[in-house]
Specification:
Layout lengths: L25 H16 L4 E3 L9 E4 L9 E12 L2 E5 L9 E5 L2 E7 L5 E7 H14 L10 H18 L1
Bound molecules: nickel (II) ion.
Nickel (II) ion binds next to helix 2.
Length: 167
């Protein structure tokens, strides 16, 4: 397994639309394992392949306190969504930035697991937020795009400044 480098906003690679995965083969299983390791090490509760510059439709999520409830979603699709909820979000690609985002409160999602089998899951609360946030990444969308233009500009400038200072 290997730790992968996480791309930071406003890198344009975060805005690529990820391609569906045709076959769940050993390469995809290894990618999922590396992404999980990278997410736990960060630490974070979700990671999309887009964030490590692999634009394929694969996300990993673990919202448990004990970090032993890994969920892998390959080619995830939201089948239905209901309610509205506002939650504070952050992102491993937008370090140090947290803000409130409104999304559907409950979702039903369908995906393939690492065995290539289709499954469906109902989620609400933090899990629903996290899955929607990660699927947004696959569609090239970062959570700051839900914020005002002014906030987005501030965040972009702040992260570009950090990136320059880190060089
Ligand atoms: Ni994110």
């Amino acid at each position: 397994m290997a730790l992968l480098k996480i791309v930071h906003y406003p890198d344009p690679r975060l805005h690529k639309v990820a391609q569906p995965i045709a076959t769940v083969d050993d390469e995809i299983k290894a990618l999922a394992a590396d992404m999980a390791e990278t997410m736990y090490a960060a630490p974070g509760i979700g990671l999309a392949a887009t964030q490590i510059d692999r634009p394929v439709r694969l996300i990993v999520v673990d919202i448990s306190e004990t970090k032993d409830d890994l969920k892998v979603f390959i080619n995830p699709e939201i089948l239905s969504a209901s309610g509205r909820g506002e939650h504070e979000e952050g992102c491993l690609s937008v370090p140090g930035i947290y803000d409130m985002v409104t999304r559907p409160e409950r979702i039903r999602v369908r995906a393939l697991n690492t065995q290539g089998q289709s499954f469906e899951l109902e989620a609400d609360g933090l899990l629903a937020v996290c899955i929607q946030h990660e699927i947004d990444h696959l569609d090239g969308k970062v959570f700051v795009e839900y914020l005002s233009r002014l906030k987005q500009d501030r965040i972009r400038k702040k992260l570009l400044k950090h990136a320059r200072e880190a060089m």
